[in-house]
Amino acid sequence: MSTLDWPLDADGYPHREAARVLLFDDEGRVLLAKGHDEDQPERFWWFTIGGGIEEAEDPRSAAVREVFEETGIELAPDDLVGPVLYRSAEFDFLAVTARQDEWFFIAQAPSTALSRDGWTELERTVIDAQAWWDIDEAAAQINGEIYPAQILEYARRWREGWDGHMIRLSDAREP
How sure is the predictor about 119, in pLDDT bands with cuts at 50, 70 and 90? Predict the structure, then answer.
């Protein structure tokens, strides 16, 4: 069983900053990953590509690195739009309650074959799939098992471009 090796915050919770990217292909579909909790294998959810910001890295650089590691898609920092969303979330994962502060960007990418070559051991254990989704099909089929819960609503707005207003979500508690 894996453990969460994030630094502890003042309250004793594993806590990190992360960068996430909502990727759109040329057809307006979004790339989502499906994962499960190794501690609760029956529990699964869909989410955007991304992960922890490393020391001396800014959110934009981390987002570019994470997209490449998790998909094999190469982006430049200037390919990212935003940050379009900032979220503070608390969730249960690997039998602990964790906190994550996330910077979200949007970008266009080709819907090419995806690579798992850059995945960490934990990602190989808990990520089950990556798929390009039509936003309406995702909303109909995923049935709320997506985080952040509003991401498909935002994707509909951002598909044609971003209005320059960064959304802030705080105190998000996920199952």
Answer: confident
What pLDDT sits at residue 81? 98
What pLDDT does residue 127 have?
78
DSSP the chain: -----PPB-TTS-BEEEEEEEEEE-TTS-EEEEEEEETTEEEEEEEE-EEEEPPTT--HHHHHHHHHHHHH-----GGG-EEEEEEEEEEEEETTEEEEEEEEEEEEE--------TT--HHHHHHEEEEEEE-HHHHHHHHTT-EESTTHHHHHHHHTT---SPPEEEEEEE--
User: Which domains are assigned to the chain?
Assistant: 15-171 (3.90.79.10)
Answering whether pTM is above 0.85, one says yes
